[in-house]
Amino acid sequence: MFIIVAFSVFNLVIISAMFIFIKRSFSEFASLSPAGRTLILNRIKELESRLESVENNYKVLSGDVEKIFIKLKHAFQGSGIIRYDAFDNISGMYSFSYALLDANKNGIIITSIMSRDFTRVYAKEVSNGNVNLEISPEEKKALEIAISKIN
User: Fold this and answer.
1) What pLDDT score was predicted for residue 123?
2) CB–CB of 96/83 below 8 Å?
3) Phi, psi of 97 (to 5 degrees)
4) CA 122, chain centre distance (Å)
5) Measured between alpha carbons, how far is 76 from 101 in angstroms, rounded to an integer?
6) What is the 3-state secondary structure (H, E, C) of the chain?
7) Is there a contact between 144 and 97 (Cβ–Cβ < 8 Å)?
8) Distance of alpha carbon 114 from alpha carbon 120, whole angstroms
């Protein structure tokens, strides 16, 4: 009950202060010459016009930002790379598996396997965090890292 009374008293004080401020503003405005009042009224109209322009720009920009966020869901947001030696006779970790995923966990895993005689590159599609083909342990680890980086 005390809180309600205190809040009501606070509101009365604020309303009284606003009333005094408005009354003083009107009395000061009334004491101006007609030319001064016209200048102030014209300035108020100009500021209202600018405010309306700002509000319109804000609406346009808000729509643009919303479109950008929708598009960002399809941009790559998570990546994971694993480097390894695919064969015992070659070192230097030249082989790799690289996973790139969007916010919906859709993307691709690219694997490059290097030996002394050849290099092979494979690409596997990822849909909702799953791959329809069999994946190597390195590809699985790269995919796990990429998924962990998505919000």
Assistant:
1) 96
2) yes
3) -125, 130
4) 33
5) 5
6) CHHHHHHHHHHHHHHHHHHHHHHHHHHHHHCCCHHHHHHHHHHHHHHHHHHHHHHHHHHHHHHHHHHHHHHHCCCCCEEEEEEECCCCCCCCCCEEEEEEECCCCCEEEEEEEECCCCEEEEEEEEECCEECCCCCHHHHHHHHHHHHCCC
7) no
8) 7
Q: Which amino acid is at 5?
A: V
Q: What is the mean pLDDT of each run of 10 residues along the chain (151 residues)?
A: 62 73 68 75 82 83 85 90 88 92 95 91 95 95 95 67
Beta-bridge partner residues of 130? 127
Tally of CB atoms within 10 A around 90: 14
Terminal Cα-to-Cα distance of the chain (whole angstroms): 46
CA-nearest of 141, 149, 151 to 81 is 141
